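#lab-general

N.A. 3:47 PM
ok so I finally got the sequence cleaned up, no stray characters, all 560 residues accounted for. can someone with queue access submit it? mine expired

B.Y. 3:52 PM
send it over

N.A. 3:53 PM
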Amino acid sequence: MAYRPMKITLAAGTEAARLLRDRAFRAKWQDLYDRCPWATVFQTAAFLDAWFEVYGDRYRPVLAIGSRTEGSLDGLLILVSATDSGEFLHAGTHHAEYQVWMAAPADGNLFIELTLDELARCFPKAGLRFIYLPPSAPLDWAAPGSRWGRCCDLVPVPVPLLGLADAKVLDSLRKKRLRKWKLEELEKMGGLRLEEIENPEYFASLFAEIIDYFDFRQGAVHDVLPFRRDARKKLLYLAIARVPGLLHISALYVGDRLVSACLYFQDRGRVIPFMLSHSPFLARYSPATLHILTLAARLAEQKSATDFDLTPGAGYKDRFATRHENSHIVIVSLDPSDADRRRRKQRLLEAARAILVKAGLESTAKFMASVMRAPAAHWAQFKVWLWSTVEISVYWLDADLTGAFGPSAGFRRDSLADLLRLRPSAAQAYLKTAFARIESHGHAYTLVQDGSPGCSLWTTPIQSQVLVPETGEEILLPPGSAAVYGFAATAHGADLYEAALRHAIHQEFSGSSDLRRVYTWVSAADRKRQVVLEKLGFVRAGTSRKVTRRGRIRNALNLA
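B.Y. 4:20 PM
back already:
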C-alpha cells in the first residue's frame, strides 16, 4: 500500500462538541484507543463524557484530528480552551492523571509533531502542557536536536509501581509495613473488612464522609481543600461513579466504621488510583497503608491486574514500590522565542539559587519567598519573634463537680466537617494542629449555628502531662487528670465558652471513676473567660509565661 501523508484538522467549539457526541466518530475514537498502547482511561469517552458534563461550560473543546484518508481517524489529541483565559489544557485538566494524544505506534511521534505545527500556525503565542505523560508515550519528538526539541522542556518524574503478580512479595511487604500490634488492636475494635462498593447511590451516601477525610488531611499537610475550593469536584466523582464499569470503589471498615476509601480505575491490567482518603481518628494504625496492601493482595488473588500504579511522584509511595517507570511533565511553547525566554528565566533562577546555596542562604531564600506570598502573616510572626510576652492562667476543676454539668444543644463530637468550616484564615496551622490533637487521642466538640461557624473546644484523655501550646510548656499533672482547652469562637465568646465547657466536660468526663481533676487554661488578660471558669467551680492553679526577645525564649511555670 502506498504511503499516505497524515493531514491534521483542528475542530473547536460547537463543531468539536458535535464530534465528541457523534456515534460514528466515537466508534473511531474507541478503535484508535484500542490501537494506541500508551493511551489511558483519561483519554476515553467514558471518562471525558463525565468531565464535560460537569465542567463543559468552563472549557471549549479543541480537537486535533489526524487523518490519512477521508473520514479516517489516525491520531487524536483532545484539548480544551479555558473560557476565561483562553489557555490550552488537556481535556480533563488536572483530574486526568495521565495526559497524552492517541495514535498507532508507528505514528506516535509524527502525529504530535504535525499537531504542534498546526497549533503553532493557528495560535503562535499559545503553549501546551502534558502533566503527566504515560511512561510508554513516545518522546523522540521532544528530544534535544529534534524539530520541536528547542520548544520543549521535559521534566522526568518517577512512577512507583507495586507488582501484583507475586503473592509472596505482597505478603512480605504487608508483614514489613504492618506491625502485628496494629492488626491485633484493629481486630479488637471489630475486625477489618474490605468491601467493593458497586451501587452509586450507596457510594453517594458515603461520599461526604470520604470528602471530609480527604480535605482535612490535604488542608493539614498541603494547605489546600480540594473539594471545598471546587464545589464541582464532588459532582465529577459522582458522575464518574455512575458510569458502569468505569470507577472501582474500595472501602475499608473496622467493624462498621469506614476508615479508608480508595477510588481507582482498572486500565489495561494496571490499577490507577483516583482518590485515596482515610480517617485521621485511626491514623496511628496506618489505614492507607493497610488499605493499599489489602486491596493489592485481593487484586493479585483475582489476577485482575498486573501492576498497582501508585501515580507519578516520590516520597511515601516508594515504600510500596517493587519497581519504577519514568513519566514526564512536558511543557511546550509553540513560539520558539517564548521557549528561549522561559529557559533564560529558568537559568537565572537556577544561578541565583546556586549562589544562595554556596553562601549557605538557601533557607533564607525560601523564607523570603514565603514572605512575599503572605506578608501580613509573616509580619505578625516577626513581631512575636522580636518582642512578645504570652501569659496564661491555669485552672483545675474537682471531678466531683462534673456531675452538675449537663449537655448543651447543637454540639457535635469529632465532626471533621465542622472543623473544616470553623477554620480561621491561617487554615493550615489550624488543621495541622487539629490533626496532631486527634492523633494524640484528643476529641473536638464543635458547634455550628444555622450553617455558620460557632466554636470548638478540645479535650484530652486522662494523662500524666499536657502541653500548653500557647507557651510551649509541658505541665505535669496529678494522677487522674485530664484537660479541656483550645477554645475558638467566631462570635459571642463568653456565652459559647460556658456552653462548650459544660457540654464537653459532661460528655467526656461525667461519671468517670478514674478522673480526679480537669485542667484548663486561658489568657491571663482574658478576664471574661476567667469569670466563666470561676463561676463553674474552677480553681486557679497558677501561671505559665513565655517571653520572647529577638528570638530568645524564656519560659516560666508557676503552679501551686
